[in-house]
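User: Hey, my collaborator sent me this sequence without any context and asked if I could get a structure. I don't really work with proteins. Can you help?
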Amino acid sequence: MTDKPFTLRIPFPGFQPSRTDNHITRHLSDLEGRFMDTETYEQMLEEEDVMLYEVYEVRRPEIAGEMLFGIDIIHPGKVGDEFFMTKGHYHEMLETSELYYCLQGEGFMVMETPEGDTAVEKLFPNSVIYVPPRWAHRTVCTGQNEDLVNFYIYPANAGQNYGTLEQFGFRKIIVERNNRIEIIDNPNIKHRS
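Assistant: No problem. I've predicted the 3D structure and written it out in structure-token form, which is a compact way to encode the shape of the chain:
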């Protein structure tokens, strides 16, 4: 890590940054319990533990004033009718925001607050999505043959809380029915008291 300014190059195609401090891969097994169609999920997992997405991070000190950023790449595919997606998270410091800039592909950002407000915004090349403080968020790739690629940036001290959504699930999911993309209520949502 350096305390001096630096330039990061993001090549096209490929999108692997010229500098990466952490490369995270998430496979089907890492999203157990997050897909609506558990039977298809189990069948797919028996055949192959496919990679759903990967993240290239440029790490910074996790202190106020620093920014953490990187590239996430969500691969195309579905479990039953439901598109491949990221795990999704709240920030540990709930009052922090995040910014996404879509570089390639198509998809959605699914968001919700602890109080139950929901929002779904479309991702497409050159779109920017601002995720306000208090909003959990996950990206969903709806392209048939193309990765969804985003540049993201957020306060380095924000942290990530995956546990809440792992326990309860997102309120909205993205599916394909009759060759149409639909945003529906998650039938497997666990109600919060």
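In plain terms: The domain at 22-185 is CATH 2.60.120.10 (Jelly Rolls). You can pass these tokens on to your collaborator as they are.
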